[in-house]
Amino acid sequence: MTNRLLTSTVDLGYDGRPISHGLTVEVPDNAFTAIIGPNACGKSTLLRALSRLLRPTAGEVVLDGRDIHTLPAKEVARRLALLPQTSIAPDGITVADLVGRGRYPHQSFLKQWSEADEAAVAAALAATGIEELANRLLDELSGGQRQRVWIAMTLAQDTELLLLDEPTTYLDIAHQIELLELFRTLNREHGRTLVAVLHDLNQAFRYADHVIAMRDGAVVAEGAPSEIVDAELVRRVFGLASRVVPDPVTGTPLVVPELGRPSEVAR
């Protein structure tokens, strides 16, 4: 059975500059997928294509059996939500108002703001631990607090598919783990399908069921962390000499860089 979201031999790029060629990726349903790879390898480009923000120059992105670009934007937004790497909000907007904008796909001329919308916003504020910030202006918040607000807006959209581009950016380690635990709960207890670009390899291998490793616009390997992650994969993807040992808490792969071994810098 085909997964809900996939790319089929897509070419991706910006302003005539190619990033990926013939890229085919299937997002496993009801799983937490992490996309890893060095800077500028095409991770965010792939996520933008999966979310309909970037149109392939060849091939197609398929959502529920249809080319995603044949579906109305609002219909796509009821099925999947995207947390982009950078976001811009209007000046003078409060946290609650911004999170409420996640409910836009569920509004129409005949269906205005409802108790269900209020409940979704309240649940998103609670899940991200920012209820006490609801009436604060976004401009007054720290970078980490703002990141949690954007994540809350994404959660308020209440979609079955969540695409997250570096969601732990700006967060301290405690809030990173809290957020990753939330994502795992959304996946395992609520059946959400998640795809996240993550830079911390050990967090990716601890929390994700499925990993897509990229370099130079191509997929180098994909599968369960326990099946694909070893020192050779880390070297091929990142040019980094390392040892991969079992995480003492979870048993998942733990990457330990070797001292005194210069990296083969990805070019």
Draw up the topology in text.
Layout: E1 5-14, E2 17-27, E3 32-36, H1 43-50, E4 58-63, E5 66-67, H2 73-79, E6 80-83, H3 95-100, H4 115-127, H5 143-156, E7 161-165, H6 173-188, E8 193-197, H7 201-207, E9 210-215, E10 218-223, H8 225-228, H9 231-238, E11 242-246, E12 253-257
Parallel strand pairs: 3-8, 3-9, 6-7, 7-8
Antiparallel strand pairs: 1-2, 1-4, 4-5, 9-10, 11-12
In the CATH classification, which architecture applies? 3-Layer(aba) Sandwich
Strands in their spatial order, largest beta sheet: 6-7-8-3-9-10
Topology as a string of helices (H) and strands (E): EEEHEEHEHHHEHEHEEHHEE
| Tally of separate domains | 1
Question: What is the name of the CATH topology?
Answer: Rossmann fold
Helix percentage: 25-40%
The helix-and-strand class reads alpha/beta
CATH H-level homologous superfamily name? P-loop containing nucleotide triphosphate hydrolases
Pfam family, one: ABC_tran
Subcellular location: Cell membrane
Membrane topology: Peripheral membrane protein
InterPro entries: AAA+_ATPase (IPR003593), ABC_transporter-like_ATP-bd (IPR003439), ABC_transporter-like_CS (IPR017871), P-loop_NTPase (IPR027417), Siderophore_ABC-ATPase (IPR051535)
